[in-house]
Task: structure prediction
Amino acid sequence: MASETLDQAKTKVTEAVDRLADDLEKISLQIHGNPELCFKEEKASGWLSDFLEKQGARVERGVGGLPTAFRATIEGAKPGPTVAIMAEYDALPNIGHACGHNVIATAGAGAGAAIAASLGTLPFAGRIQVIGTPAEEGGAGKVRLMEAGVFKDVDAAMMIHGRCGTQVWRPSLGIIKVKCEYFGKASHASSWPWRGVNALNAMIQLFVSLDLMRQQIKPDARVHGIITKGGDQANIIPEHTTAEFYLRAPTKDYCRELLRRFEGCAQGAATATGCTVKVTADATVHEPLKANFTMAGLFGKNLERIDFPVDPDDGEAGYGSTDCGNVSQAIPTIHPYIRISPDGIPGHSREFAEWAKSPMALTGMVAGAKALALTALDLLANPGELQKAKEEFAKNA
Ligand SMILES: [Zn+2]
Ligand SMILES: [Zn+2]
Result:
C-alpha cells in the first residue's frame, strides 16, 4: 500500500473525527448522565449502535449472546485481517461514570464512525470492527464475548481508557474474585449470647488476618473486600455473614498464591470462632495485560501526529485490572490511557466522575478516537506492522 494512500486516509479520518466531535460529545454526556450498571447498558449500547449505523457501519446488535453487546463493521477493499476497537460503557454502583467509560465508549465508536463516514470502504484489505463490550466493572463481559467467539477472527484489538495522564503503556493486575461465607448459630444477643456462634466475629477475624497477611505479600499485590451481609438485626447473634474480595497480582501464579493464603486465613477465622466457612473463587480469572510495544509504538506516533502530549508516569498510583487483560493474552492488544483529568485524581472517585464529563475529558475523547482510528489504519495498510505485532505477541509467552 502506498504510504501516500495511508497518509490521505489518516487525514480524512482525523478531519471526520473533528466533524463528528459535537455529536460524540453529546453521546458521551448522555451516557454519563444515564449511568447503567454491568449487563444493563441498554441505552448506551443503543445510542452507540445507532450512531455507528448512521455513519455507515454495518451494525449487529446483541452479539455473543449479550443483549447490550454490539459489533460494527467497516469492510475493506478485499478480505484480510480484522482489527477491533473495543468500547466499554458500563458505570459503577452509586458513583456513576467514575471510571469514565462514557469516554471509552465514544472514543471507540467515534473512531469507527469517522472511518465509516470518511472512507466508506477501507482502501486496504481487511476490516475494522468496533466491538461494544459490556460489563467491564465486575462482569468480565469481554471474557463472555471471547467464549462466544466474538473475537475469533480478530487479529489485533485496541481501546483507550481515561486517566489522570496519557500513557501508551501501563501494566494491569490479574484478579481472582472470591466470596467468603461464615455459618454460625443464631441466639438472643442479650439473654443467651453464649448459646450462639457468631458468624460476624469470624468475618471480622478474617479481615484482621488479611490485614496482618498484607505485610507479608509483595508490594504490587492487592487484597481488598467488603462485607455484603453482616447479620440481620443487632439483637440476634449473626448466623450467616458474607463478603466479597478481589485478590490481585501482576501474575496469575501470584494470584493463586494469594488465594491459597486467603483460604488459610478464612479457615483460621472459622476455627477461632467455631463457625463453618465456605470460600468460592470465581471461575473467571482476570488476566494481567500483556504488553504489545509494536502497537503501542504506532499509537504513540499517532498521538504525536495529532499533537496530543504523552505524560511521564506519575509514579504514585498503583495498577488496576481489566477484562481487556484476557483479550491481550489471546491476541495482540493495547490499552493506552488518555488524560481526562488533572494529575492525581484517582479513578473510581466522585471527583473522577466529574472530570469524565469535563471539557478536558471531551478533548481526551476526541484525541483517543483519532489515535485509535489511525492505529487501526496503520495495521491494515502495513501488513508488516501487524506481522511484527503478532511476532512480539508470540515471543512473549
Ligand atoms: Zn473501573
Ligand atoms: Zn474502567
